[in-house]
Design brief:
The complex is a heterotetramer of chains A (608), B (512), C (307) and D (286). With 512 residues, chain B is of the alpha+beta class. Chain B has helices at 2-14, 43-52, 100-110, 148-152, 227-236, 249-254, 284-293, 296-304, 324-330, 336-346, 366-380, 391-401, 422-428, 440-451, 455-471, and strands spanning 23-28, 57-59, 65-67, 70-75, 81-86, 126-133, 136-141, 182-188, 192-197, 218-223, 241-242, 258-262, 268-274, 309-310, 354-361, 382-389, 409-417, 475-480, 486-490, 493-494, 497-499, 503-505, 510-511. Chain B has 15 helices and 23 strands. Chain B has a 7-stranded mixed β-sheet with strand order 8-9-10-1-11-19-12, sandwiched between helices. In chain B, a hairpin with a 5-residue loop joins strand 4 (70-75) and strand 5 (81-86). Chain D has helices spanning 2-6, 12-42, 74-110, 112-127, 130-141, 145-173, 175-183, 187-223, 235-242, 251-278. The chains are: A alpha/beta (608), B alpha+beta (512), C mainly alpha (307), D mainly alpha (286). Chains in contact: A-C, A-D, B-C, B-D, C-D.
Chain lengths: 608, 512, 307, 286
């Protein structure tokens, strides 16, 4: 923990950034002033559009010279001398970049040059700033990779970015950034693109190295959970403006500004808001489930070699059995690649299943063709993650919402317009918006349009695939509210696919945890989240950052650095039978029998 | 990649022209097809192989036939036996002596079972060829053949040395052994042909004043398809002799260092003929209407600006039967009213025009001439579409058109160059070169032109044939000469002469 | 990489095979009788003789049979003989191919140098005046008909100024056709390079490289250009094909003794064996070059190289 | 926020300025179309009539662009040629766009064997290169403007098919396609009601630029004598038939050549403008 008397490493005063847009000027960062202290983690928090990334780039002169106008001061103290960053020439600034201030970015997939090996990219930074020979630089690079907990570091040097996983790449980025022992590390959303377990690893790594090298970290993020877990002090921004700053405890416990309060209130907190299961289900076991899935498998062929023969398959969904009852919300939880989205699509026959059976309201619909499915789609609708992409940009939103009405002949031509208007109002939009195009709406509004579209034909089930993850927290909270009220009103069942356990806890009656294509644990939400039985579920829950600094424990827990194994299997490999056992007599709580086998057995690190 | 590039550059340099001061550089629009006189009929080819080979007889500037490789010849009284006596001591390019065996070899190649000469029929009804001795060779015919002696003076009857037998696979391509004043050094296909002076050459009858070998070391014949480039090369002095684009002849004429030469007695004749296998040109009135509707004098004036002459006869100037006054009298004068009247008889008028096509071959501004005709024909109610193609395709197309019995009427602007009125036999005696017009009475007349050996009597028959062809509007003469007869020549060049039928002779040429 | 290579070669072979099929049947699409066209000028060839020739060419057999004969000959390097003059087609093409390749490769080199540099500068100065000037230049460049440019260049530099020979095969004669051919392609390449580099310049990894404190040349050349090269190389193969096509007209204008000019002559003469040979030869070169470019691509791109 | 950095040149000012430039270009095209349609009425002379003036006279008040070797008025011929040139562009682009889009749509949407078959076929056709296809077709069909247009059109099919195929693949991956299927729409509806409108703008841009390519290529064929035949006032053919007057009457060459450059330039610039307006992915480039 940094003390307030720690020396100031970077002192920013009146930093403003504006972009010229033809004749007009748009100010993105407005007169920001703050200090970064040695060895501390300062979290800069804000929703998208708050100007936090632009601000960090402005400090290093990384904004496009022609269009960005930067003013103010940023004093960096290095070896006792003070340097004003914003007035430095590009050449002098280059000596600061990577040397005194280093930076890592959000997308580990695109932040490394694809055509250069990891080693080259690490070494060039070292050689630029340090008077080392190539072999010395090589050794330093290897040791940095080892510090970043990258296994087989020496071998990695010759590898290219595409050969590493996202988490590995972010470790490489961290190794690269810290190679010259910078005074400050600016981490711009370093974990946003990563899975929650990997996020925990990376946050811990940054924290460990920060302590080790006494580097200050400026952590730019939108995730209040991450802030609570990892930061010492917080700076809240909104639309380029300073909102408030203070220690983590202070800001979380006594937020001064209304915006900060809303922000904090919107964050779903794991373990705090369990939904009461709808009473009907447990008692009404005899009710016909809407979906009854037995041993469903979805496999994708991997073609290799000269003749494109199938040598292996991706076992995206493996022996999954589940039921979805009328009116309930079942959540599918898992990390990327766990098969949860594929399962959702397979239920709708949007991807072909390779084994098992899907029954919808008692009818076996396994392997139905697109044309056979068509009448059924009136009853099963879907909402997708990206509201930007899931609306055809060349159609008016009115036409898009009207489309299901047309397809299923739900009402006469004359009533249709009115019905669309009603739907718009039902999801909190105005009927006047009908003639506009998708790009004229914000993300949250678009998701509302998607919801309107989905409920237009009064379906029985909605499959919502990560439908909240692209939204800012405040918007997310509003959409959750909308979904819940719609569900109550219309009695729709919801298959809610998400990676966010906190949201899941808030919204779902039952939850199924997926890992490598299988459901490893399934049961009433409260049971699964509060008493996880399967090792993977436990690990997943442990990794979730808690947006409460008093409960924050992520960085203090021993963490293993294992990666999720690949679901690609040879066609000759025998797939063991997947069994689940109900471990409770009241309600349900199924756990996979292979709990031990799946438990990640890799290196487990113990860092105090 | 850099290695192969430099290799390519090296090749480029190697194949670059060796411009020595003792070379004559002659640029032309196209390449030869072959150096084998039996494989091709193009003027471009003939002009080259005529430097390498020689025929038994030769012509003077007026077209009179005289000795060449043969110092003498005899025709038997019944006209079925022709005997040639060869000069002694003539050397082929490989050093072997030219004898009767070489003549027989040439004949045998022309009459090959598997691959006869393209001009086999021009040799006539030969039954056998025998060597009386090394210097005497005798041709036997099944019937008299009046056109044989003139043919023997033609480049098509060039003598090929028997020593070519040893390299037969490459004959016509990389080897060509003859007795001419120039011998083949190399033919870089598409680019140029290099000929070197034949040191052993003795001129026995060719038109050159020089009795011995050529005065210059080398004759380089380059291919420059773009007329503009040829003109430019002439202007820069890069080439000595080249055909200028007809449209820019005035540029040559006005250039301080360029002269314009014109080959006399080209034997070239350009005429219109018709597909008579179907309407409308199966009716003589339709053909006559075309002949009346066009005004060749005006058209030639516009297109050629005085470079060509109006031709009224069906045989070329310098050939027996070419009598402009006579032919003009029996020919057609520009008379659109007459044309309209004939068309009206056939049921055509401006609102119901006759819709036909006219074809010709590329280059030589013939396309432009057809444009003028097109506009003239339009005036009387004949809509003509123009098709331009290569001469080979034109030949094939004309033949095809003559077999088609339905569809659009077809006519073509055709050009032939021949040394004898026998051309009329080849064109119009059934089946004829293109399976075109024929009739029993015409066949009978044409047969006579071949059998008759008495020049006066033959002339009389030829004129009857001409009268018939013109009256029936089968063969409508337009102009002469027709193709590549103009030579832009740098003023450093002297001594360039032309044998009849547009055959330039380079043995006298000196480039200063 | 080996798998990729083999797959690439297999698809190239397939392409060439389909080409041979198309070529073999080309002659059957021609209206009229090919033999008659071939022997049109020997006025009195008898129908029996024509039949004989038809037989010797195999034109009287079934199409499949003809194809087998054609392929049999082709595999022995025999492309037949020309109709005019009965010269070996393979020999004619081989003689002129080096000239066409020389012209095309020199032009391609020029085009890559000029197009590449101006495209890179334009992308770097995107939206500023160098970009505007260069891109205006390239739009004009791609709009000028090469044959017209050729005629103007010819009359200006050869006739008026006398700097270069009008025709011929030497290095001096190469300059004008190569420059003319390169001019239009440089414009195209310039535009491709520009748009590729603009995409690259927007990539996060350049930000990473800059954040490391690397010098400008290092960022631009090592990170940006090397990454940009991969997509650029992939379109260069295509550009080479276009260039070979462009060479046909340029060869004609500048009397350059290449296959293109031969082809035009062959078309006018309806010399089908020569046209067939040309099409086969041309598409084989294009396929070979595209394979070569794919190899280069694979070599440059670690994602493929490492497999 | 990140987008601001990535596309710095995209600014409101330019966005409002661009359509107006586009409007000017479209206006010019409209004017050209009108000129082409009205050519016979507005030509000062009949384009076919010979000796409408002295032969080979330089540009003057009586003959704005001079006269050719037949004394035909070049200005009138250029006007008529506009009609041919536009027709050439439209017909050949129509052929390649029609077939190319059909192939691209089917291959891109259906996948599986139709995709393999069609795209493999396109690859082969593509490796022949445009000019070789055009030359072979002209060799087979014989030289005429119609055949040249057809040949250029056919030769460009693989290009259009590839672009369309690529665009369909991009669109097919968009979530809105899946969401429309999940909504219960038929494949036909997804392809033609949803995907097609998203592909059309890309194709429109390609077709506009393709128009200039087609005009250039056809004029090239005409120049070689393999396209329009005399006395057609097609500009390439005009160039071909007058190139030998270059030293005597340079305007015979410069005027049709210049016209080709201008019209090709026009469609190229128009294509670029359309792209910047219609194709959001390409914004920021000019």
């Amino acid at each position: 923990m940094a003390e307030t008397q720690s020396p100031v490493v970077l002192s920013v005063a009146d930093l403003s950034v504006s972009f010229k847009q033809g004749a007009s000027v748009k100010t993105v960062v407005k007169a920001m002033s703050f200090d970064v202290l040695a060895g501390e983690t300062l979290a800069v928090v804000g929703e998208s559009g708050s100007g936090k990334s632009v601000m960090s780039r402005a400090l290093l002169g990384l904004l496009p010279a022609g269009s960005a106008d930067v003013s103010g001061q940023a004093m960096l103290s290095k070896q006792g001398e003070q340097v004003e960053l914003l007035s430095l020439s590009d050449q002098s600034l280059r000596k600061v970049r990577g040397n005194h201030i280093a930076m890592i970015f959000q997308e580990p997939m695109t932040a490394l040059t694809p055509v250069l090996s990891i080693g080259e990219q690490l070494m060039e930074g070292i050689l630029t700033h340090q008077p080392l020979s190539r072999s010395e630089a090589f050794e330093l690079a290897v040791s940095m990779l080892q510090e970043a907990r990258i296994p087989e570091a020496r071998k990695r040097m010759a590898q290219y970015p595409h050969q590493l996983s996202g988490g590995m790449r972010q470790r490489v980025m961290i190794a690269m950034a810290l190679a010259c022992r910078p005074r400050i590390l600016i981490a711009d959303e370093p974990t946003t693109a990563l899975d929650v377990t990997v996020q925990a690893q990376i946050l811990k790594l940054i924290n460990t190295l920060k302590t080790q090298y006494n580097t200050a970290v400026m952590l730019i993020t939108h995730d209040m959970g991450v802030v609570a877990e990892a930061a010492d002090r917080v700076l809240v921004m909104r639309r380029g403006d300073f909102v408030e700053a203070g220690s983590v405890q202070q800001v979380f416990s006594k937020p001064k500004q209304a915006y900060t309060q809303t922000l904090l209130a919107s964050v779903p907190k794991l373990g705090s808001s369990a939904k009461q299961p709808i009473a009907t289900i447990a008692e009404n076991d005899a009710a016909v489930p809407l979906f009854d899935v037995a041993d469903l498998c979805v496999q994708f062929d991997v073609r290799e070699g000269l003749f494109n023969r199938v040598r292996s398959r991706v076992h995206a969904v493996e022996q999954v059995s589940l039921k979805l009852f009328p009116g309930e919300t079942l959540a599918l939880v898992g990390e990327s690649g766990s098969g949860k989205s594929t399962l959702g699509r397979a239920l709708l026959n949007l991807v072909p299943s390779s084994a098992g059976a899907i029954r919808f309201r008692g009818r076996d619909i396994t392997g139905w063709s697109a044309s056979m499915m068509r009448p059924l789609r009136k009853q099963i609708q879907m909402i997708f993650q990206d509201p930007f992409a899931s609306l055809n940009p060349r159609k008016t939103v009115g036409a898009l919402v009207e489309e299901p009405l047309k397809l299923f002949d739900i009402c006469s031509d004359s009533e249709r317009k009115q019905r669309v208007g009603e739907l718009f109002e039902r999801v909190g939009l105005s009927a006047d918006d009908m003639t506009r195009y998708p790009h004229q709406f914000s993300g949250g509004q678009r998701q509302r349009i998607c919801i309107a579209r989905a409920i237009a034909c009064e379906p029985r089930v909605i499959v919502a695939d990560e439908c909240l993850s692209a939204l800012d927290v405040t918007v997310q909270a509003q959409v959750i509210e909308l979904l819940q009220s719609l569900q109550q009103e219309l009695g729709i069942s919801l298959l809610f696919i998400s990676h966010d356990l906190a949201v899941v806890e808030q919204i779902s009656d039952r939850v199924a945890v997926m890992y490598m294509g299988r459901i490893v644990e399934m049961g009433d939400t409260a049971r699964v989240i509060n008493r996880p039985q399967h090792s993977y579920t436990q690990r997943l829950l442990e990794a979730v950052p808690v947006a409460d600094p008093t409960k924050a424990s992520l960085l203090n827990r021993p963490l293993n650095n294992s990666e999720i194994p690949s679901p690609v299997r040879s066609i000759f490999e025998e797939i063991p039978r997947h069994n689940m056992t109900n471990i409770t007599s009241i309600g349900e709580h199924y756990v996979a029998d292979d709990s031990a086998a799946v438990a990640p057995s890799d290196v487990t690190e113990d860092v105090a | 990649m850099t290695k192969s590039l430099s290799l390519l550059i090296a090749i480029g340099l190697l194949t670059g022209p060796a411009m020595a001061s003792n070379d004559i550089i002659w640029a032309r629009y196209g390449d030869i097809d072959s150096l084998d006189p039996h494989r091709t009929t193009s003027t471009l080819s003939m002009q080259v192989w005529n430097q390498i080979y020689e025929p038994l007889l030769a012509r003077d500037a007026e077209g009179n036939i005289g000795p060449n490789l043969a110092k003498d010849y005899r025709v038997s009284d019944d006209g079925t036996q022709v005997t040639f006596v060869l000069h002694e001591g003539i050397e082929c390019h490989d050093g072997s002596e030219f004898t009767a065996e070489d003549v027989i070899y040439t004949y045998q190649r022309a009459f090959s079972e598997t691959n006869p000469s393209n001009t086999q029929s021009a040799w006539g009804p030969i039954e056998s060829v025998n060597a009386v001795d090394a210097q005497t060779v005798s041709f036997s015919f099944s019937e008299p053949f009046g056109a044989f002696i003139p043919f023997m003076a033609d480049p098509f009857a060039s003598m090929i040395c028997k020593s070519n037998e040893q390299s037969l696979a490459s004959f016509g391509s990389t080897t060509a052994i003859g007795t001419g004043a120039w011998q083949l050094v190399q033919w870089i296909k598409g680019d140029r042909i290099e000929l070197a002076r034949n040191e052993a050459y003795v001129n026995h009858g060719r038109m050159a004043g020089n009795a011995g070998p050529a005065k210059m070391d080398k004759l380089i014949i380059k291919v420059m398809p773009e007329a503009q480039a040829r003109l430019a090369a002439l202007q820069t002095g890069e080439v000595h002799i080249a055909e200028p684009p007809l449209e820019s002849v005035s540029v040559v004429e006005n250039h301080p260092h360029l002269n314009l030469l014109s080959a006399p007695n080209t034997g070239q004749n350009v005429f219109i003929e018709f597909a008579v296998s179907r309407p409308p040109f199966n009716d003589v009135r339709a053909r006559q209407a075309v002949a009346y509707a066009i005004d060749p004098d005006m058209a030639l004036d516009i297109v050629f600006e005085g470079l060509v002459e109006r031709e009224h006869c069906t045989v070329a100037r310098g050939v027996m039967g070419n009598d402009q006054d006579y032919c003009k009298r029996i020919g057609y004068q520009y008379d659109p009213a007459k044309a309209k009247q004939l068309l009206a008889e056939l049921g055509y008028d401006k609102r119901n025009p006759m819709d036909v096509k006219i074809m010709t071959w590329t280059d030589g501004s013939r396309d432009k001439l057809l444009q003028v005709f097109q506009s003239q024909l339009k005036q009387v109610g004949i809509e003509v579409s123009i098709e331009i193609m290569d001469i080979g395709s034109l030949n094939a197309r004309v033949k095809q058109e003559n077999h088609i019995t339905e569809g659009k009427g077809s006519m073509d602007l055709m050009g032939w160059s021949w040394y004898d009125p026998d051309i009329l036999y080849q064109l119009w005696h059934s089946p004829g070169a293109y399976d075109g017009y024929n009739s029993p009475e015409l066949d009978a007349l044409l047969k006579q032109t071949r059998l008759e050996t008495n020049p006066e009597k033959r002339l009389e028959i030829v004129q009857q044939v001409q009268a018939y062809l013109i009256e029936q509007a089968v063969h409508v003469p337009i102009y002469t000469p027709g193709w590549v007869w103009l030579y832009g020549v740098n003023d450093s060049v002297s001594g360039l002469k032309f044998e009849p039928f547009n055959q330039p002779i380079f043995t006298d040429v000196v480039v200063n | 990489m080996t798998t990729y290579l083999l797959q690439r070669l297999m698809s190239a072979a397939l392409t060439v095979w389909i080409t041979t099929l198309a070529i073999c049947f080309l002659i059957h699409l021609v209206p009229g009788d090919p033999v008659q066209i071939m022997y049109a000028q020997s006025a009195t060839t008898s129908p029996e003789q024509l039949e004989q020739i038809r037989h010797s060419l195999g034109l009287d057999r079934s199409i499949i049979h003809q194809y087998i004969i054609y392929m049999g000959k082709l595999l022995q390097g025999d492309m037949g003989v020309t109709i005019r003059g009965q010269q070996s087609v393979a020999e004619l093409l081989l003689l002129r191919l080096p000239n066409t390749l020389l012209l095309t490769l020199s032009a391609l080199t020029l085009a890559i140098v000029f197009g590449g540099v101006s495209g890179f500068i334009a992308a770097y100065k995107q939206g500023q005046w160098p970009d505007k000037v260069l891109m205006t230049g390239t739009v004009v460049g791609i709009s000028v008909p090469p044959f017209w440019l050729g005629l103007i260049v010819l009359s200006l530099f050869s006739v008026e100024l006398g700097w270069f020979p009008v025709a011929g095969q030497g290095l001096g004669s190469l300059v004008l056709p190569a420059v003319t051919l390169a001019a239009c392609q440089a414009a195209v390449i310039g535009r491709i390079v520009r748009s590729t580099m603009i995409d690259v310049f927007a990539q996060d990894y350049l930000l990473t490289a800059r954040a490391k404190g690397l010098s400008k040349p290092k960022v631009l050349l090592r990170h940006a250009l090397r990454s940009g090269l991969i997509p650029i190389v992939s379109v260069l193969g295509m550009q080479f094909a276009y260039m070979m096509g462009g060479a046909i007209v340029i060869e004609y204008v500048f009397s350059w003794n290449g296959v293109g000019r031969l082809a035009i002559q062959a078309i006018f003469q309806r010399d089908y064996p020569l046209i067939q040979g040309f099409v086969l030869c041309f598409s084989m070169i294009v396929v070979l070059v595209s394979v070569a470019m794919d190899l280069l691509y694979a070599f440059l791109d670690p994602r493929i190289r490492q497999e | 926020m990140e987008q601001v950095i990535k596309t710095p040149s995209l600014s409101a000012g330019r966005l409002t300025w661009r359509p107006s430039r586009l409007a000017v270009l479209l206006g010019i095209v409209a004017a050209l179309v009108i000129v082409a349609l009205l050519a016979p009425l507005i030509s000062p002379y009949d384009f076919e009539v010979m000796a409408s003036g002295p032969r080979l006279s330089p540009p003057s008040w009586a003959h704005w662009f001079g006269t050719d070797e037949f004394g035909r008025d070049i200005f009138s011929r250029i006007l008529m040629g506009t009609r041919l040139t536009l027709m050439v562009g439209l017909v050949s682009v129509g052929v390649s766009l029609g077939f190319g889009m059909l192939i691209g749509l089917i291959a891109g949407y259906c996948g599986g064997w139709p995709e393999k078959l069609l795209m493999r076929g396109m690859d082969v056709l593509f490796s022949f290169t445009e000019i070789v296809i055009a030359l072979s077709l002209v060799a087979v069909l014989g030289p005429s403007l119609e055949n040249a247009m057809l040949a250029i059109g056919i030769a460009a099919i693989p290009f259009y098919a590839r672009v369309c195929y690529g665009a369909v693949l991009v669109e097919k991956k968009q979530v809105y396609v899946e969401s429309t299927i999940a909504l219960g729409a038929s494949h036909f509806r997804v392809l033609f009601v949803h995907i097609l409108p998203n592909v059309v703008p890309v194709m429109l841009v390609v077709a506009t630029i393709g128009l200039s390519n087609a005009i250039l290529a056809t004029s090239g064929l005409s120049y070689l004598g393999l396209g329009a035949q005399p006395p057609s006032p097609e500009w390439g053919a005009m160039l071909a038939s007058s190139k030998n007057y270059f030293q005597r009457a340079p305007w015979l060459l410069m005027i049709p050549g210049g016209c080709i450059v201008l019209i090709v330039l026009l469609f190229n610039v128009l294509g670029e403008q359309l792209r910047s307006v219609l194709d959001p992915r390409r914004k920021g480039e000019s």
